[in-house]
Write a structure and sequence with these properties.
The structure holds 2 protein chains of 2 kinds. By secondary structure, chain A is α/β, with parallel strands linked by helices. In chain A, about 35% of the residues lie in helices and about 25% in strands. The chains are: A alpha/beta, B mainly alpha. Bound molecules: adenosine-5'-diphosphate (ADP) and magnesium ion.
């Protein structure tokens, strides 16, 4: 089966010269439909950088990122924006909700930007809010929600519509253990329904929901709970 | 209750995460009888021997529930001993020991999570808590292994190469 996400020998260096930080140093990874991969690693190991590259929010210094078989570097600005709106659902570490929009408006926004009618977008947004169990706060603004509620609205926004690739950066960070588990259950269901998921977490308990766990240290994958994706493996797969 | 009933009751509360063989149940019952915590009743027509709890038994049970377990009462941690020995035994790569143990931990965690992912039935509660206990123990072990790996890498740079290094090398060479 073809991969939804593919990283081939990806490097990312922030800054230049002596101050340069090699956040990723040759990461090769594939995520297939119906597969949830967890990324674990200490703070500063490159987890967020990896996710930003996978979501097309940032480009690699070297190597290639493919989403549904298309190299992101080869897309026009408009095409890339469309992939980010339609294909990729992203849960940011700091939620990133728009403060002037209510919960349901925040969740409906990506669909509306994509040309879906306001009514249909709203209906889909309410369904997504109900998936994560927060329909009761649909009309509230971000500053009227607890951290855990904001987190769940952010997840609802990432899941709304038919996202084929869900990227989540510590989505359970602000949640207590019961709520965190409920969120992972939702993520797992979405992946079981055919999406591909990449989950950054530092809690092994949450990584247990993934099909495969990779360990990142200083920008290098040092270990994996399943077979490591190697460059050879990718070539073989293409042949 | 007789032996088979006891085993069924136990397994129902722990949800099959801890299987008992019937021999174990009978050995335990005879030890409890020796210590006068239970007493045997006359055999039933079907040849089953029921037991009942005594006053002493009840007191012991209530003491057990109300006294926290001492950490030293639990079996010694073989893994900690294994790692300590791996550190000091020439020719043994500690990071490999750490990583293979962590992989095993992650696999176990995935297995427990799969059990947990099933829909919740109301009477599942006791075994779910047992399952959570296994999950939290696994998580603690994985965190400790992460900590070991980091500490070892920091104190012995160059000795323990990351496992993906050969992949990187291969890529670089093929360019
Ligand atoms: N925009 C940036 N500019 C400079 N350095 C950065 C930038 N983003 C991340 N870094 C550095 O890259 C490394 C990896 O960061 P990050 O991917 O955020 O790690 P993690 O999410 O695992 O904590 C860190 O050393 C971090 O300081
Ligand atoms: Mg981060």
């Amino acid at each position: 089966m073809s991969s939804v996400l593919e990283l081939r020998g990806v490097h990312r260096t922030h800054g230049r010269g002596p101050a340069a930080v090699h956040a990723l140093r040759g990461v090769t990874l594939r995520v297939r439909p119906g597969e949830l991969v967890a990324v674990m690693g200490p703070s500063g190991s490159g987890k967020s950088t990896l996710l930003n590259l996978a979501g097309g929010l940032d480009g690699p210094s070297h190597g290639e990122v493919l989403v549904e078989g298309r190299s992101l570097a080869e897309l026009s600005r408009r095409e890339l924006a469309a992939v980010r709106r339609r294909t990729v659902g992203y849960v940011f570490q700091d939620f990133n909700l728009l403060p002037s929009l209510t919960a349901v408006e925040n969740v409906a926004l990506p669909l509306e930007l994509d040309g879906v009618s306001v009514r249909r977008a709203r209906r889909a947004a309410l369904a997504s809010l109900s998936e994560v169990g927060v329909t009761d706060i649909a009309g509230r603004f971000p500053d009227q929600m607890s951290g855990g509620q904001q987190q769940r609205v952010a997840i609802a926004r990432a899941l709304v519509g038919e996202r084929r690739l869900v990227l989540a950066d510590e989505p359970t960070g602000a949640l207590d253990s019961g709520t965190g588990e409920a969120v992972l259950r939702v993520l797992r269901e979405r992946v079981d329904a055919g999406a591909a998921g990449l989950l950054v977490t530092h809690e092994a308990r949450h990584a247990g929901w993934a099909d495969r766990v990779i360990f990142l240290r200083d920008g290098v994958v040092v270990d994996s709970s399943g077979p490591l994706d190697t460059a050879d493996d990718l070539l073989e797969h293409r042949a | 209750m007789h032996g088979y009933q006891l085993r069924a009751a136990f397994e129902e509360s722990v949800g099959g995460t801890w299987a008992l063989n019937i021999g174990q149940v009978y050995t335990t019952l005879s030890r409890l009888e020796r210590d006068e915590f239970v007493r045997a009743l006359p055999e039933s027509e079907s040849g089953q021997r029921p037991y009942e709890i005594t006053e002493t038994g009840r007191a012991e049970l209530s003491r057990w529930f109300s006294t926290p377990l001492e950490r030293t009462d639990r079996p010694r941690d073989e893994l900690a001993i294994k790692l300590a020995l791996a550190m000091t035994t020439p020719g043994v790569d500690v990071t490999t020991v750490v990583q293979s143990q962590r992989t095993a931990g992650v696999r176990a965690l995935q297995e427990y999570t799969r059990l947990k992912a099933r829909p919740i039935e109301p009477d599942d509660l006791s075994w779910r808590l047992v399952l959570d206990s296994l999950i939290f123990q696994c998580e603690a072990e994985i965190r400790w292994l992460d900590h070991c790996e980091m500490t070892i890498l920091r104190h012995r740079p160059g000795l323990a190469a990351p496992v993906s290094a050969p992949v990187e090398e291969r890529e670089r060479n093929s360019r």
